[in-house]
UniProtKB/TrEMBL annotation:
It is found in: Membrane. SUPFAM superfamilies: Integrin domains. Keywords: Glycoprotein, Integrin, Membrane. It holds the Pfam family Integrin_A_Ig_1. This is Integrin alpha-V-like isoform X1.
């Protein structure tokens, strides 16, 4: 965490995730749906303490394509503490 957080928020940090796949006979590319949920253990109706910076929500979903037998496909998302 540093003083220069995007979007004028404090308590900013990054969440990084990577996917890697390999398998004999598997297709050259594999498609995955990634669903991230921050502060998952908080009760459903409770206010979440951590949010994604770009959407100001606690959930993020995206489709990712990974090449069979290649290095991992990685992404980072900025999040912040309320």
């Amino acid at each position: 965490m540093g003083p220069a957080c995007p979007g004028g928020v404090s308590g900013h940090f990054k969440v990084k995730y990577c996917l890697k796949a390999s398998g004999h006979g598997a297709p050259a590319t594999l498609n995955f749906r990634v669903d991230l949920m921050l502060d998952r253990l908080k009760q459903k109706e409770a206010t979440k303490r951590v949010l994604f910076l770009h959407s100001r929500t606690f959930q993020y979903s995206k489709n990712m394509t990974v090449s069979n037998g290649r290095g991992p496909a990685c992404e980072e998302q900025s999040v912040f503490l309320r």
